[in-house]
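thread: overnight batch results

M.L. [08:02]
morning all. the overnight job finished for the chain we discussed friday. pasting input first so we're all looking at the same thing
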Amino acid sequence: MKSLIVSVTTIALMLMVSSAQVQAAIDSFFDISVSVQIDTPDGQGSASIASIPSPNNVVTVDGNQTSVQYLARIVDSTIPELDPGIGPFTVSGNGTIQPNTAGGPPLLVDIALNSPVGGQFNLLLGGDFSSGGPDFSLFPAGQGQLVQPTNFPAPVIFRSHRITPEPGSMVLLGLGAAAVMGTRRRKAA
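M.L. [08:03]
and the structure it wrote out:
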């Protein structure tokens, strides 16, 4: 009986270690914030889209693959297909991460996104994870990306599409770090 318990315990530990190794390769960043600015090529229409705080807003990174999902709303718009009265909708997609060898942000993400409002569209984002979470925006910076979403009759220009940690989460991380530093100082004294 003792050897059975030892064997089961050993197998359980081996599974936990192998599971931990797999999990170490996968990072998930919750509480992301997304802001988007879209214009029509003729300059006659524009729209602002923003994420709505949700526990389902997440960026997942697994090696050189990534996925994103967030709940969004149209803040304001003069583009007929992007009516601010449209309720919250989910934007999701998958992409590939690669090092940026041309200068600028260290990482590039070529991502295919899908939403019930715009349909399918692709974007190229540049950024990194150095701020404790994803910080990615359109690449190259300052230039719009002409995109033809499948649900639109004409192309639009994405002027900005930024994915960052949700500001409230960053405040909590900062407070936690301050508390740890204060505890360490008290122990040292």
